[in-house]
Specification:
It is a single chain. By secondary structure, the chain is an alpha+beta fold. The chain has three helices and three strands; from the N terminus they run αβαβαβ. Strands 2-1-3 form a three-stranded mixed beta sheet. The longest helix has 20 residues, at 40-59. The protein is elongated and about 40 Å long. It starts with 6 loop residues before the first helix and ends with a strand.
């Protein structure tokens, strides 16, 4: 399930993919896990986050071959030592990178 706050970003990504038919993206999932090992559970959670975005795009007509995905677990946190809920939340994210065009 996506957070309500993610809906506009997902729609913007979908619109981008529709209007740029040759672009291939990589969807990267991340989790919050300060001071902990990057466990299989973290990797699976981050992978599932990225896979959910891929599924959304496919369900809305984007060719699956244009979407790669990967879960990084807690290995690339924006805030390795988060000090606020905003920083904890920022670590739990999905990033989109253009793989080629």
């Amino acid at each position: 399930d996506f957070l309500p706050s993610a809906k506009s970003s997902l729609k913007a990504l979908l619109d981008f993919m529709i209007h740029n038919k040759k672009v291939v993206i990589e969807v990267e999932g991340h989790v919050n896990g300060p001071n902990e090992r990057n466990t299989n559970a973290y990797k699976e959670l981050s992978n599932n986050r990225a896979k959910a975005v891929k599924a959304y795009l496919i369900e809305n007509g984007i060719d699956q071959n244009r979407i790669k995905y990967v879960g990084y677990g807690n290995s690339q946190m924006l805030f390795p030592q988060p000090k606020s809920e905003r920083e904890h939340s920022a670590n739990r994210r999905v990033e989109i990178k253009v793989a080629n065009n």
